[in-house]
Design goal:
2 copies of one chain form a homodimer.
Chain A lengths: L10 H20 L3 E2 L5 E3 H4 L4 H7 L2 E2 L3 H5 L6 H6 L3 E3 L4 H10 L8 E10 L11 E10 L4 H17 L4 E7 H10 L6 H9 L1 H15 L7 H8 L1 E2 L1 H11 L7 H16 L6 E5 L12 E7 L6 E8 L13 E7 H10 L13 E3 L4 H16 L4 E3 L6 H10 L4 E4 L2 H5 L2 E6 L5 E5 L3 H5 L1
Parallel strand pairs in A: 1-5, 7-9, 13-14, 13-15
Antiparallel strand pairs in A: 2-4, 3-4, 5-6, 6-12, 7-10, 8-9, 10-11, 11-12, 15-16, 16-17
Helix pairs in contact in A: 1-7, 1-14, 7-13, 8-13, 9-10, 12-13
């Protein structure tokens, strides 16, 4: 039995996950991102307070040990809580920021890292949501250029293209949201403005307006509403925004960066991946300071399968001020579910054995083992049945395990230095010299 | 800052670890082992009591959350301890046994799995020993045949051969130790007999004899001592043991299995890997019931880099009696240290970028980005400097990051649709058409 919200990953699931991770990893490495890992256990003071009230509630903490544990007896809950020293990784971004500061003498800027590790959140488990799950992140810190955003968009495109998932990437910029809030007379209420906007998918436009009203944001002009609700390509929407926001100082950075991004991408286009500017996209506005991305799979019934953005002060919380970072994340579990929905997995990723050597008796099994080792040394995946069980049992095992071929090596075969090879799908079989086995199978 | 005994793994370390893991994984898969993962967090009742007193002391436990946490206030330490529900994975074998029982309807026997995951032990940190470290295990459960032991020995051989580490595998069998204890008149004191023997490396033969004396084991006859201290090939030692132990019932199984193993391996030899029978090898005797293995690297200053054995009742603790298992483990950290000592790593595993596109100005960087994307789509690892920094700074970055080539794309190059390619090691550079860049670099 397992703790609530955790799971075993059996071979077929693992094969799918590895297929996804390998595809993404290859794209990361082509873009000169290199892998790092941080410990599962961080100091509690590193993590606590970094993810809001929800984070502190859902974070897994580590019980003190030894004398520290004994000192918790007969103490108030406040005392117990304030004596917790360690907690489990809750995301990959905060540990990455901590690591950049700790390892500043061992890295060169711009530093591009990818990280594929599990995180733990004691959330209410539900379909597709687990308390231990894998995050795949790519981030770069150091000198900031919009080329980095373009690169990350290309990484999304190439990864999902390789994985055979058609996607749409939605894009926004914090400075445009600031500009729109200013235009709407709510520039002093940017947080409430974006929190409301972020709920658009769930509560609709009227719900958003109601939230804004309660937050004291004045009624939105129709032309601002129209901008907020428009989605479209950069080429189409950017000129409209440049006009609408030309006199709004806070929008200047956003307009400039998106114009640069548009130039880069018109020279190096994103292929069949749709990139849409969506001014209602407001995720992560409490930490993102520049571009914001969100990816959804077209034709699949699933929320976001990736997201990211620019944070101008990634490491400030750990004492290194004004170091800019920009990054993206891939949702491994959701990508797997989407690929299952869309039938995007190839058929042959399971890495089942390609051939089973049946075990007829000790003398023959010794020859079978020798032949199996020869095939294995040539890279073939082989299985040798470990005991001389009934043939039906061995064949049943092969069929259940999706092993397509059976090698039969009885006394006759052994004495004639032959093998009999049976195709378990068709039942066809033939006998030939042991020396020819690899040629016949490969 | 990090908790005691934990560490960040930076790109160069990760590259080495991945190199090792990929080599071992490929061999596992050729031998029809498939990967699984189990959760980091198991129920405390699954793990506690499974690793002796030391395990219970060193295990990381998870702090209860919410109401459960509040209920710990003003309670005795016994109450607190008995209300711990979750603990972190301490090894891979117990979770594997638990998983085999939980997932019995989803697996076919014999079930061969490999698992490469971290485990946590609050041991005193020291050089090369961390509180979070990676185990790589391959085990098979189900019908038991000595072919499985032969297969695992081949996995060791092929893995270390691929990794360019010459190794010696030491082999023993619990039944032979029982036979020797019986021969020594200590058959009722097998545990004390093997605990003493296991310390031979540390305390020498006289120390072992002293331990035995204190445990009430009678003085050992010279011929038993000689057997215990002899190491040698199966071919050489087995006939001697067969003679010495022929009348000892408890040795029968060991002699039979090693004779079978010897037949298999004489047909499918272990290449340049030395296999030695070592009757003083007594590791893990509290759980191993058949063969025992231990691997050391030749010419390296390091203890065991792998070990394993047969346990006839792997899953009994979880209610599935008499299911046999046999498995081996690879010590990833120690293998990395050995390979560094022996210079066994190839030079080109770091996956640094192969080329850096310098950033001269916005217009040229747009062309550079386009060219970089073309190279990346052909599988080349490229870096584009994100901002138009001073050339010296960009070159310094390339050199520090071990990037061998620099692409320079200034206004001249852009207007002529050329690039300048500089070899940063030699300083040589030449200019040519942008269309020829891939051909020149590949």
């Amino acid at each position: 039995m397992l703790p609530k919200g955790t799971r075993d990953l059996l071979p077929d699931d693992m094969a799918k996950r590895k297929y996804i991770v390998n595809a993404i990893t290859e794209v990361f490495e082509q873009h000169a991102f290199r892998q790092i890992e941080t410990p599962a256990i961080e100091l509690n003071k590193t993590l606590s307070g970094k993810y809001g009230e929800e984070g502190d509630r859902l974070m897994f903490k580590v019980l003190p040990r030894g004398e520290k544990l004994n000192s918790l007896a007969n103490q108030s809950i406040e005392f117990i809580k304030s004596n917790i020293e360690e907690a489990l990784r809750y995301d990959l971004t905060v540990p990455f920021a901590r690591m950049v500061v700790d390892q500043r003498n061992h890295i060169n800027l711009p530093f591009k890292r990818y990280q594929i590790q599990n995180v733990w959140r004691a959330d209410r488990p539900q379909k597709g949501r687990f308390r231990e799950f894998t995050q795949c992140d790519a981030d770069v810190v150091g000198p900031a250029g919009i080329i980095q955003e373009a690169e990350l968009l290309h990484i999304y495109h190439r990864s999902f293209h390789t994985l055979n998932i058609p996607v749409e990437i939605r894009l926004n910029h914090r400075s445009l949201l600031q500009g729109l809030a200013e235009l709407a007379g709510a520039s002093d209420k940017l947080v409430a403005f974006t929190i409301g906007l972020d709920k658009l998918d769930k509560i609709g436009w009227n719900g958003v307006e109601e939230e804004w009203r309660q937050a004291g944001i004045p009624d939105i002009q129709p032309e601002v509403k129209e901008l907020l609700l428009t989605k479209g390509t950069l080429e189409k929407l950017l000129p409209i925004l440049e006009k609408a926001l030309e006199s709004i100082p806070s929008a200047k950075r956003g307009l400039l960066e998106l114009r640069q991004l548009s130039s880069i991408l018109s020279n190096a286009p994103l292929g069949n991946t749709a990139l849409k500017l969506d001014l209602s996209l407001a995720r992560g506005l409490n930490y993102y300071t520049g571009c914001i991305f969100e990816v959804s799979a077209l034709g699949a019934d699933m929320g976001s399968i990736g997201g990211g953005g620019r944070y101008d002060d990634l490491t400030g919380i750990f004492g290194w001020k004004d170091l800019s970072g920009v990054g993206i994340s891939f949702g491994l579990d959701r990508i797997q579910l989407v690929m299952e929905q869309l039938n995007s997995f190839p058929n042959d990723i399971g890495l089942n054995a390609e051939v089973l050597f049946a075990n007829m008796d000790e003398a023959s099994s010794i020859i079978g083992f020798k032949l199996a080792q020869e095939l294995r040394s040539k890279g073939m995946r082989c299985e040798v049945y470990p005991v001389a069980a009934k043939m039906k049992k061995q064949i049943d095992f092969a069929v259940k395990s999706n092993i397509p071929f059976l090698v039969i090596l009885g006394e006759n075969e052994r004495l004639n230095q032959e093998v009999t090879l049976r195709n378990l799908a068709t039942g066809e079989q033939s006998s030939f010299s042991q020396n020819d086995l690899y040629e016949k199978l490969k």
